[in-house]
C-alpha cells in the first residue's frame, strides 16, 4: 500500500490523479469506480482550498506591507503636526496651545507609540478631534492639511480592520485545507483497500501494477 498518512498536500494531490486513472484502466467494478470518484472529488476540494489559501496569504502580505507604509507615513505627519503646534505655542500663540491640548491630551507618544491594531483607537480619537477642531482659529494655520490628515487617519483605521479580517480568512483557509487533506487521505486509503480486495491482495500483480503509478512521488 502506498503511504498516505505523512504525505504533504502536494504529494497527495500528485498521487490522486494517477491512482484514479489506474483504477479506471484496470478495474470496472462499481465499488472501485465509486472509490476513484470519491478520491477525485476530495482532490478537487483540497486543490481549491490550497489555491484559496495561497490567494489569501498573498493578499494578506500585500495588505501588511501597505499598512506598515501608511502607518510610518502617518506617524511622521502626526509628529510634524505636534512639532508645529508646539512651535506656535512657544511663540506665544495661545490658540495653538489649546489645540495641542485637544489633539494630544496625553502627549505625542500615546498616539504614535502603538502599532497596528493597537494604534487604531488613538488614530480614531485623533481623527475625531481634528474633525471637531476644524473651525477653530488655530486650525486655520494649517488650511487643508488637517482635513487631509483626518481622512487619512480614518482610512488607515479601516484598512487595519480589513487586515485583521484577512488574518481571520487566512486562519480559516488553513483549517479548511487541513480538513480537505485529511478527507483526501481517507479517500485514498479507502480506494487502496478496495483495489487490494479486488486484486486479490497487496502482492497480486494487478495491485502491484496499480500501486506502481505513484512510485517515486514524495
SS elements, strand count: 0
Which percent range describes the beta-strand content?
A: under 5%
Oligomer: single chain
Query: How far apart are the first and last residues' alpha carbons, in Å?
Result: 14 Å
Please outline the major beta sheet.
none
What is the mean predicted local confidence, pLDDT? 84
Structural class: mainly alpha
Could you outline the blueprint of secondary structure elements for this entry?
Blueprint: H1 9-26, H2 30-90, H3 94-103, H4 109-112, H5 120-132, H6 145-199, H7 205-212
Structure explained in plain terms:
With 218 residues, the chain is mainly alpha-helical. Helices cover 78% and strands 0% of the residues. The chain is built from seven helices and no strands. It has helices at residues 9-26, 30-90, 94-103, 109-112, 120-132, 145-199, 205-212. Helix 2 (30-90) packs antiparallel against helix 3 (94-103). The two termini are 14 Å apart. The model has no long low-confidence stretch (mean pLDDT 84).
What labels describe this entry?
single chain; 218 residues; mainly alpha; 78% helix
Q: What's this, in brief?
A:
By secondary structure, the protein is mostly helical. The chain has helices at 9-26, 30-90, 94-103, 109-112, 120-132, 145-199, 205-212.
